[in-house]
Amino acid sequence: MEPVITPYGRFYNQDCVTGARAHLASGSVDLIVTDPPYGIDGDRLHRHYNRDETCVVGGYVEVPAGAYGEFSLDWILEAERVLRPGGSIYIVSGYTNLYHILHALRQTSLREVNHIIWKYNFGVYTRKKYISSHYHILFYEKPGGRRTFNLECRYGANEASDDGGSLNYRDREDVWAINRHYKPGMVKNKNELPTALLGRMIQYSSDEGDLVCDLFLGGCSTARTAIGLNRRTVGFEVSETIFAKRAPALAEITPGDLLASLRQPVIDPLRNQGKRWSRADLERLERRYAELRDGGKTRKASIAVLQQEFGRGRWSLERALKRTGDGR
Ligand SMILES: C[S@@+](CC[C@H](N)C(=O)[O-])C[C@H]1O[C@@H](n2cnc3c(N)ncnc32)[C@H](O)[C@@H]1O
């Protein structure tokens, strides 16, 4: 099928390795969030939580278990190539073939940042053993550049819960309890990921305007969330049936439509006042200022945004911008 191309996204009905080689330059992607086929009996994947099978889009392309190791290495090497130095990758995986993914990752330069457990509802019901209700999320980085991690994108560092605990700390623990969408009667993909899960990865590990890639689009939930958070996106889905049913709707989304629903963190506006500017901070300032100006913001409006992001006063930012040489 023809690709879906919009001003904020490019989506291809192609195998992701061939597609990435054809359409993605080396070092061009800021963040990859992806959920490869699990190499198990794909046709049974959804049985346990989407019981109405008539609503599940068919055409899911599975990988034979015996080929999973080679398949994983192929796409992970491609992911390593397209990521920028300092770029991040999140891979969602079940347990069965996790070792193949870990083995492939160890054959690249990618470095582990966290191993996250996603605890979900609708686990497979069992009588003689415990109920499996989690997936693994491997969070890795490509060395050689500054990794984006927006520490206070969801909770300010000093925000406390009613019992006095730190909300920021809790949000960054590596076990995430997030329910899957329960969409009775609505069209869905097998194993569609919830917006809350995807949003958390995208908010922490990318900025507005960054390029977010999903190598296995499926129901396009990663792409939808990324566009909703005002990121640029690119993605691949090999199944023509799934692509035809799900990808065209991406052209209907208004970029940034999720931003208004986000929780606003309470951040001490002058938390970094008086601290020395590091070289990494100055580089980030230069990059973010250019992004805001290129996005159409005035100098004054850009500085107001940067005051929040950097926790410094206006004059400190003015002086730092002079040092970076961006006088716009
Ligand atoms: C686990 S699903 C992704 C689900 C997706 N995260 C969502 O929320 O809907 C994996 C998808 O990868 C697709 N796929 C399998 N092999 C592929 C390949 N080589 N290149 C691109 N897509 C592939 C499958 O058809 C399936 O739709």
UniProtKB/TrEMBL annotation:
Q: Name one Pfam family in it.
A: N6_N4_Mtase
The record's annotation in Gene3D superfamilies points to: Vaccinia Virus protein VP39
Q: Which domain of life is it from?
A: Archaea
Question: Which InterPro entries does the annotation name?
Answer: DNA_methylase_N4/N6, DNA_methylase_N6_adenine_CS, RM_Methyltransferase, SAM-dependent_MTases_sf
Question: What processes does the entry annotate via GO biological process terms?
Answer: DNA restriction-modification system; methylation
Alphabetical keyword list: Methyltransferase, Restriction system, S-adenosyl-L-methionine, Transferase
As its record notes, the protein acts as a catalyst of:
a 2'-deoxycytidine in DNA + S-adenosyl-L-methionine = an N(4)-methyl-2'-deoxycytidine in DNA + S-adenosyl-L-homocysteine + H(+)
Enzyme Commission number: 2.1.1.113
One MF annotation (Gene Ontology) recorded for this entry:
N-methyltransferase activity
Domain DNA methylase N-4/N-6, first and last residues per copy: 29-242
> What's the family?
Belongs to the N(4)/N(6)-methyltransferase family.
Protein name, UniProt field: Type II methyltransferase
